[in-house]
Specification:
The structure holds two protein chains of two kinds.
Chain A: H1 2-25, E1 28-29, H2 41-53, E2 58-64, H3 68-83, E3 89-93, H4 97-100, H5 105-114, H6 118-127, H7 133-146, H8 150-158, E4 188-195, H9 202-219, E5 226-231, H10 232-266, H11 270-293, E6 297-298, H12 299-302, H13 305-324, H14 330-353, H15 361-392, H16 405-409, H17 411-435, H18 453-464, E7 472-478, H19 481-501, E8 504-508, H20 517-527, H21 534-543, H22 552-564, H23 576-582, E9 586-589, E10 592-601, H24 606-613, E11 618-621, H25 623-657, H26 660-683, H27 690-702, H28 704-716, H29 721-744, H30 752-783, H31 788-794
Helix pairs in contact in A: 1-11, 2-25, 5-22, 7-8, 9-10, 10-13, 10-29, 11-13, 11-15, 13-14, 13-15, 13-29, 14-15, 14-27, 17-26, 17-30, 25-26, 25-27, 26-28, 26-30, 27-30, 28-29, 28-30, 29-30
Chain B: H1 2-9, H2 19-33, E1 37-47, E2 55-64, E3 68-73, E4 79-84, E5 87-92, E6 97-101, H3 109-116, H4 127-133, E7 134-142, E8 145-152, H5 155-158, E9 161-169, E10 175-182, E11 187-197, E12 214-217
Parallel strand pairs in B: 6-12
Antiparallel strand pairs in B: 1-2, 1-11, 2-3, 3-4, 4-5, 5-6, 7-8, 8-9, 9-10, 10-11
Classes of the chains: A alpha+beta, B alpha+beta.
């Protein structure tokens, strides 16, 4: 006795340590692309974009007021306040850096100048030659006097030699009122806030966001000003904490529903208490195992936790139901249950683990997580719950039966259920016939939270500033700078050709920004000697009527060229203004060279553009194109996995049932369930998407158990339908309702993908349960007439 | 838009000015209502901080209600700006070049013209509308000349500006000069002369034969 107690204490301590170790390693990833096949071009490109240009440490604060002055004052106040919080914030910016410090632009101008083609540099050298200088300056004066462009006047007055006139990226610094900082009317402003330290995980992002939010809101005394928060840290915090909430609520509601079902069925508290405790233990153990052995969990993957509970409880029901009629000891009960549980749990777990055959990491994760949960559930129910069930089983025979058993023994109830099942089938197949298959939706919105303040803020920001949602991002990657440049040159004629064909409206290629080492070397050699000419140039400028102030940019550019002389190539500008300009255009760390451009497609030409432009290391991507690619590839991918899964089940069943007609009945039942599910989806206006298709695989893994159990029962009972119903109706009812409760609880999840998956699975399981329980036994005698069945099935 | 825009918006914060002080402005606005067409000569003075002395150039302008406008810089014209309901054309005759821009363009002539003081002279503005959109910084009168310093409330129009200075005859309501002063310290001023109110303006003035010109169109 003492030895046994010591064993249980030791087991409890080890379990707690295991759970603690597993939970300490869990990391959630909110990147939905981690769910999708990595070989897809759009997934690769968007992953590169998110990894390199999504700025994980940059929060976007939007400031909206009734008038532009208030909005500006408030935006400036927030940026000043946050900049003073050096422990929290590295930088907070409410206007382009060059507006407060125009001189800082000279470094970037020099960088662009050194990247120009030889003819531009020859033109500049000519303009600065002793014979041409005076003429150049006179032309500038003429331009200053007759131009009607304020931008041109401003630029030329500070660049009298026109060094910047050849630069094609002047639009980056245009004086347009609408920018990434302000709407055209000035009433909507944006502050970009970078965290002082990298935000390593969602908890850090959430804590940091809360502190920033509190600071901004507590310091704001103007109630007419609306502040909102978006950007990567806001998304990470919102999605992850939302998933936490989804997991908790769906887990708790599943447990409540299971409790209700158990109470209705058995009316006993003591076993229910143990069952609930063990289900939570299974949940914790499964998550801890995932934390220890899986690299990371996507937030969507973690949302399947309630599914594990819904599936594991099946074994608990089975053990408890068997214990009620069991007269022997624990070992005998365990042995009695082990064959059935091992059979069902191993096929279910195998089905889920088989999802690793899919190229979808999301499905693999789902399969691994639920497969682990099912195995742990079977072990815990057999190893822990069976001894408890024997210890607490009621002593009198009166209370050994379930309250629902008489119901399932009633022929009237069965007849009513058969009619209801038939009615359901007619309704759903009729709907399918009339309305057709459900429509499809593979858009990125199906992966997002249903209610998202960050997403709403981002969409409002798009509507007030520049809306680039219809644009395609051009991402060019390479092992080194030269490879990126070569690919940019390769894509340029394709973009120009597409423009001529009318496939795209406009594009911005980062080619002019990407350093060309040859040009930089040659231009440096050509321009550096001109520094010695500065005194002459300055004297001529003054003689032509310019002040010393007009000469600042020219002197800075040549000063910068001198500073860069001898620096290893390729050159990259490094001051704060240059970094700000390049932050969404280029990445140039060792081994990670990327350039980002924008393409505005002509409506209806997105697909052909993507096909014609993309190549090795060249990606033309958007969330819309991802949806199109998923729509093209996912149904086929899921179909192949489902086929493999189904074939595996058929193979196993062919050993177990050893009857062609029984297998045919199983296949027909499964096809009927899937057809009815399609009809139900059409009826309820649900759309086919990534998660619905995944739900089909789940149904194949779990729902088919009901028909398998019944077919095996019929085999065991030599085709005796009433006896099989008596043995299995209650168990199948309990399994079906609790699994449906597990999935159904996800229907209220904030994450739309999880909710869709939950709804589809719950519907499918209920349909599967009804058809297996009430239709399959009706068809059985038709396939196996009396006297024939027993012989055929047991032979 | 144009002057109407400026004038319709300029007195928004005039609450610091008494009705008596604002009276000349009201007279000028009332006078604008009777302007259906206009022609004037002007001298443009661009005093840039990067230049030792201001740049002077003479020019002419024509306006025909409701939207036709022609602005010529230089004699003979070096830059011509024609604005009609169809859009804006900026012509450089000596270079045989022209730029076409839509009216709504952010870099188009409306903002350019506004920034450079090329204001049309419609006269439908009322003091109330004017006050909604403009902030009057000061009003001074000297004899028949009234000098108003103001700033548009619209940040697109006010961008980079320290003030808009506007002189008019407070008896006739006619414009005398219009000046933009930038925060950087430069100024762009137009002094008007030979102002003719409601003359007959030939329709051809708002058209231009661009044969042989290299034309760039912002819409394309």
């Amino acid at each position: 006795m003492r030895k046994s107690r010591f064993f249980w204490v030791l087991l409890a301590v080890a379990t707690l340590a295991y759970i603690a170790a597993g939970f300490s390693r869990i990391s959630f990833n909110v990147d939905i692309l981690r769910l999708l096949p990595t070989q897809l071009h759009q997934v690769q490109g968007l992953s590169l974009f998110l990894k390199n240009f999504a700025l994980p440490n940059e929060l976007i604060i939007t400031v909206e007021a009734d008038d532009p002055e208030t909005a500006k004052i408030e935006a400036d106040r927030i940026s000043t306040l946050l900049r003073s919080q050096t422990g929290l914030v590295k930088n907070a910016v409410s206007q382009p850096p060059w507006e407060s410090s125009p001189a800082s632009l000279s470094e970037f101008f020099t960088f662009l100048l050194l990247n120009q083609p030889p003819e531009t540099i020859a033109e500049i050298r000519k303009k600065l030659s002793p014979q041409q200088t005076k003429i150049t300056l006179d032309n500038t004066i003429e331009e200053l006097n007759t131009s009607v462009s304020p931008e041109k006047i401003t630029l030329l007055s500070y660049d009298p030699f026109g060094l910047s006139s050849s630069l094609t990226t002047a639009s980056l610094f245009s004086g347009s009122q609408q920018s990434e900082f302000s709407s055209a009317d000035g009433k909507f402003r944006v502050v970009y806030v970078e965290s002082a330290k990298p935000l390593g995980n969602y908890k850090q992002a959430d804590a940091w966001l809360k502190r920033i939010t509190a600071l901004c809101q507590s310091s704001s005394h103007n109630h007419s000003v609306k502040l909102a928060f978006t950007g990567e840290p806001a998304f990470v915090a919102e999605i992850s904490t939302g998933m936490q909430w989804d997991m908790i609520t769906s887990g708790v509601s599943t447990l409540l529903l299971i409790s209700l079902i158990f109470w209705l069925c058995y009316g006993r508290i003591s076993p229910l208490r143990w069952l609930l405790f063990l289900l939570q233990l299974i949940f914790l153990l499964a998550l801890a195992t995932a934390g220890l052995f899986l690299n990371e969990l996507t937030v969507v993957g973690a949302g399947f936790a309630s599914v594990m509970i819904g599936l594991s409880v099946d074994y608990g029901y089975f053990v408890y139901q068997q214990s009620l009629h069991h007269q022997g000891g624990v070992r005998q009960l365990q042995w009695k249950c082990i064959q059935n549980i091992a059979w069902t749990s191993s096929t279910t777990a195998a089905a889920f683990f088989a999802l690793n055959l899919s190229s979808l990491p999301g499905l693999s994760q789902l399969g691994n997580l639920v497969g682990i949960g099912v195995c742990i559930g079977a072990l815990v129910m057999l190893g822990v719950f069976a001894p408890i069930a024997v210890r607490i089983r009621p002593s009198t025979n009166a209370s050994t039966s379930s309250r629902l058993e008489p119901l399932f023994s009633s022929t009237r109830f069965i007849f009513f259920c058969e009619l209801a099942t038939l009615g359901m089938i007619v309704l759903l197949l009729g709907t399918l016939f009339i309305k057709g298959f459900p429509g499809s939706d593979f858009s990125a919105s199906t992966f997002r939270p249903r209610i998202s303040a960050s997403q709403s803020t981002l969409e409002h920001l798009y509507s007030r500033l520049h809306d680039d949602r219809g644009m395609l991002s051009l991402i060019v990657s390479g092992k080194n700078s030269a490879e990126v440049l070569s690919r940019l040159k390769e894509v340029q004629p394709k973009l120009e050709a597409a423009t001529k064909k009318g496939q795209l409206k406009s594009f911005f290629s980062p080619l002019s920004l990407w350093p060309d080492v040859t040009r930089q070397r040659e231009n440096m050699a050509d321009l550096a000697p001109l520094e010695s000419q500065l005194p002459r140039l300055k004297k001529t400028a003054e003689e032509s009527g310019f002040t010393e102030r007009a000469f600042g940019l020219t002197a800075s550019i040549f000063g910068q060229i001198r500073l860069w002389k001898g620096v290893s190539l390729p050159l990259w500008p490094e001051n704060e203004t240059s970094k700000w300009i390049l932050r969404r255009l280029a990445r140039h760390s060792e081994g990670n060279q990327l350039a980002l451009g924008i393409v505005e497609p002509a409506p209806g030409h997105e697909e052909e553009l993507v096909e014609s432009i993309t190549g090795d290391g060249i990606y033309l991507v958007s969330w819309g194109s991802l949806g199109d690619e998923l729509k093209r590839t996912m149904p086929g991918e899921i179909f192949h996995v489902a086929l493999a899964l189904f074939a595996g089940i058929i193979l196993i069943l062919s050993f177990a049932l050893r009857s062609f007609r029984a297998i045919a009945l199983f296949v027909m039942t499964t096809l009927l369930v899937l057809a009815c599910l399609a009809g139900a989806m059409s009826l309820f206006g649900m759309k086919l998407g990534f998660f619905n298709l995944a739900a089909v695989l789940l149904l194949l893994g779990t729902g088919t158990d009901y028909s398998i159990l019944l077919l095996l029962g019929l085999k065991r009972n030599k085709g005796d339908v009433p006896q099989t119903r008596h043995d299995l109706s209650l168990v199948i009812f309990l399994c079906c309702t609790s699994a449906a409760a597990g999935f159904g609880s996800l229907a209220w999840a904030n994450n739309m993908g999880l909710a869709t998956l939950g709804k589809t699975c719950a519907l499918g399981l209920l349909i599967d349960g009804m058809i297996s329980l009430f239709l399959l036994p009706r068809i059985w005698p038709l396939l196996f007439p009396k006297g024939n069945a027993a012989g055929k099935m047991t032979s | 838009m144009g002057l109407a825009f400026i004038l319709n918006t300029a007195l928004s914060q005039a609450s610091t000015f008494s009705a008596e002080e604002l009276a000349p402005l009201q007279v000028m606005l009332a006078a604008q209502r009777s302007v259906h067409s206009l022609s004037a000569d002007f001298t443009q003075i661009r005093a840039l901080r990067t230049l030792r002395s201001p740049l002077l150039i003479k020019g002419k302008l024509w306006f025909q209600a409701p939207n036709d406008f022609r602005w010529e810089l230089g004699e003979p014209p070096k830059t011509i700006l024609i604005e009609t309901h169809q859009g804006v054309i900026i012509i450089h005759p000596s270079k045989n070049q022209a730029e076409k821009r839509p009216l709504s363009s952010s870099t188009g002539s409306i903002s350019d013209a506004r920034s450079l003081g090329m204001m049309r002279l419609p006269g439908e503005g009322t003091l109330e509308e004017f006050q909604k959109q403009m902030q009057v910084l000061s009003i001074k009168t000297s004899g028949s000349r009234c000098h108003v310093e103001m700033l548009p409330k619209d940040p697109a129009a006010a961008r980079g500006l320290a003030s808009i200075n506007f002189d008019f005859d407070r008896v006739t309501g006619h414009w005398l000069s219009f000046e933009l002063v930038t925060r950087e310290g430069s100024s762009l001023m137009n002094e008007f002369s030979n102002v003719q109110i409601n003359p007959k303006i030939p329709r051809e003035l708002f058209e231009y034969d661009l044969s042989g010109f290299k034309v760039t169109d912002e819409k394309e």
